[in-house]
Amino acid sequence: MSEAHTVDGPDRGPHGPLENGTGAGATRRGTAEKGGTAEKGGATKKAILAGLRWTSLRLRLVVVFGAVALTAAVSASGIAYWLNREAVLTRTQDSALNDFQQKMQNRAAELPLWPSQSELQSTAEQMADGSAGYSVLLIGERAEGKPVVGASDRDTFTLDDVPESLQQAVNGKQKVTSGNAYPYHVFWLRTELGGTPYLVGGTRIIGGGPTGYLLKSLDQERADLNSLAWSLGIATALALVGSALLAQAAATTVLKPVQRLGEAARQLGEGRFGTRLRVTGTDELADLSRTFNKAAESLQKKVADMSAREESSRRFVADMSHELRTPLTALTAVTEVLEEEADSLDPMIAPAVTLVVSETRRLNVLVENLMEVTRFDAGTARLVLDDVDVADQVTACIDARAWLDAVELDAERGIMARLDPRRLDVIMANLIGNALKHGGSPVRVAVRTEDGSLVIEVRDHGPGIPEDVLPHVFDRFYKASASRPRSEGSGLGLSIAMENAHIHGGDITAANVPDGGAMFVLRLPKNGAEPESESSATDGGAGPEEEGDAR
Length: 551
Hints:
The chain has about 550 residues and is of the alpha+beta class. The chain has 3 domains: about 5-25 and about 55-240, no CATH class; about 285-360; about 380-525, Heat Shock Protein 90. Helices cover about 45% and strands about 15% of the residues. The strands form 3 sheets. A 6-stranded mixed sheet has the order 1-4-5-6-2-3. Strands 8-10-11-13-12 form a 5-stranded mixed sheet. α5 (about 220-270) runs parallel beside α6, α6 (about 285-340) runs antiparallel to α7 and α9 packs antiparallel against α10. The longest helix has about 55 residues, at about 285-340.
């Protein structure tokens, strides 16, 4: 007798494969499991992951952490299952084959050269008795060469249950060499019969004697391995749940500083420049927090410097305007006298007087505008609300400036609104004056109400406003043409109109009309904005009108 080997079959044992099924490598046990499952699910998993929208850093951390943990758990469980499977099957197989081989040497070898069926039957039953746990089939020959069979359990184990490949391997006589001391060896394979796994092994006695086969059920081993697989699966699931909880906790710990940083950035964006982060630790997030604090401190300093410079500029403009007002008042009085005497002046002097009068008036308007701008910036501008018939107010504005022949008014009497009549006069004077100067006749003014608001439209029929100018028409000191700085005003008229609309709680929009011309739309609440508390500051007025350069 000699070492056991496998043959090609549905499932080969753990001793290493037999090359070409001939029993090569007789000095060691071997196995060659048939098949092996192909890995599946990778493509499906990739497709699912590709469909995810990675909108949350927390989600990404949890998913990546869970995927790593799942991969590790599945790999560990797979390796543990494979090692345990091999250990269980090898232990069972070696025990059965060694016992079978020993009994073949001790019992079957004692049979006569030409055993009878009863002798084979008795020996097979003796070999299968006790704790062997397998069935035995012995095949001998009569003197006339006919086979005779004896089995420990003829109902469960017959020669038909032995695969043909195993029979050929067992009966095949091998050449005795220095590397192969025996002509016959123990061969085995694992197979299924009726859905139950079995170990089938066989050998024959050297020097003549019966051929023996064993059939051992591996159902108990399969049950044990299935139980192990369930245990490993449950352990993997628990590990996945634990890893997800751990990932959630880790993500919370990691993202909390990021969330604080985001909140601080939002506060900084809202103008709360004193926002700072409390920094602890020396990790990357702590470095990021320190960088944020430095940036916030630098920004706060720059904003403070800009605010100080802006406040200084406002004070300068206000002081300059007030200082200019007194001499300008005297100068205006003198120019009015000169204007009255213009007809009696020397013809050589009259044009100069006319120019002085015109420029003095222009300077007076500019100073008044600057003072009004400073009142808006300082927050001292106040509303003096009154119930006004809008049609009468707009008509008075047009009539006071002798624009009745150039303006078409579409306004029904009786449209009442609570507003500051002086500021409405300034708004309308600037809008209509701008349309008359830069637009084309006729200029139409329409008054209506809409959703509780007063709506006044001023439309001209000129070339419209260039698209690059539209976003800037209400900017201070903005002029569409830099080549006309003197003849087109200071560029404050529309800006002051917008400020007067805002103080009412309203707004002005500008747009081009598809069939030509521009349209300015004033919207004010009909009930009026609530006036601010009384202040000691004197409202110097709503600001003079100025036909500023809008296009």
